[in-house]
């Protein structure tokens, strides 16, 4: 329901592009070159004996992001870099811990495969391969390790897929197969719209195995095409068919067995914004669903169960996030990371009878993502990716700040200061509204804020109404009010920065991507206080956007665009182009399906025809945000050049 798939904001020093081979001075500002080479780690899976599989990612001067796969003991010893077979992406360990299962590319389709692993070396060929007509989405093993449930499209391949694409709902069903690749069959064929992917390595999924490995609780959702409403369904699925548990007239995310499998837990909502944000349960035998966290002051964003019956929930509380356990119909804090976040859910063994080993991914403003394990009541990092690199940067302080808007709305944000910041001195200022909008900025190492601060700016990321982390009412306030309530909150962040003495009122800028791009393009139609503005992949024309985005977007406004067109014109920047006086840079991927490229082109053409100061740059083949590093670096260059030219 959201555009939170990629939340992005950035800028950099132009000289960085020509300095790839130049030695870096000690304690220099953080630049795009540093971002492109910065390493971070993410826990992916864990075996029954505590061996952790983790991914290390980093960029380059050109091409896509690199991923290296490693294993390490839960004591932090015996780290090994794996030479993963070409085309194989590991998902998790098999029951014996001696093999990894995952996706393996065959004829340009991702299929299911298992590769044996011995002393950090993979066997040259897989022990098990499952080939399905249109490839697979994900897979999860049963608790006894004897079978896998695979999420996949059950339809036969389209022989003309390279000639044309038929606009029709995508289908996802469940294929259950023995661990040796035999006995595969489709379960519950009537369930054609299984939601998203299955639980992988402790992550959020759309199906959860029962403890006896005989059935799955399955989450399905109405497809986008052909519907102007949202509805979800939970079924119990086994080899004999499906049994409906509950129909939910709203969005749902995550699913787990709870309370000794008497209940099924999931995330959902009552609000029109549609973002699942509370923990709900329904009796496994069927009945009424119930909100178990009606007074939650934060936002539950992910939920999954484990083979031991625990239900884990990732909860955002302001700009921090933690892992809670849902037990006895209540949430209880389980794991936190001091001055930062626990990213996502814990990684545990997927098999019953396995050890009690766990792994987490953590980050904070001076550390990139790294793997951590429990150490008593605390967490302890066992990887240190990026630490040596970050130690060589000259970084300013990061501070969580709070203020009240002119309307009296209590707001929070993250302020990032330039290196050598002097209290009482005014700096060029940039307000950085996040994407989503049902998302937030987390208290982590944020490369984009750091790069802009490296230009000498004070940067403020405001958590405006519509952000997660502040309760259901704060989140729901975005509905039909993105262009007034959220706009006023973002603009109040600039008022706050000026009042604190940080911001030079004559050198103000605004930049955002996706929903933050909307906020940027809309802001310059409402005020001329900013001297420079940069919007990336922003919504500028709401009516056609709701029907052309690749995901359902009626969480902004569920009215029909042809019945009340004025309601959608009300916050469309294209209808207020005459008001624009701020120089505006528009950046957009040419293959963007989340916010189709015409949104940027339409606004650019109107502004250019009216003689406004505007520039548009598009990126060939790029989706919602570029995946190629040469394009990402150009985004940074365009940003820095625009700020340098107009925010003097």
> Taking all residues together, what is the mean pLDDT?
93
Distance between the termini: 39 Å
Radius of gyration: 24 Å
CATH class category of the domain at 394-646: Alpha Beta
Based on CA inertia axes, which overall geometry fits? globular
The percentage helix is 10-25%
Q: What can be said about the biggest beta sheet?
A: 8 strands, mixed
Structural class: alpha+beta
Could you name the CATH homologous superfamily of the domain at 394-646?
Alpha/Beta hydrolase fold, catalytic domain
The proportion of strand residues reads 35-45%
Q: Can you count the helices?
A: 10
Low-pLDDT residue spans: 1-24, 198-203
Kindly report the spatial arrangement of strands forming the biggest sheet. Answer: 30-31-33-32-34-35-36-37
How many beta-strand segments? Answer: 37
User: What is the level-2 CATH architecture name of the domain at 394-646?
Assistant: 3-Layer(aba) Sandwich
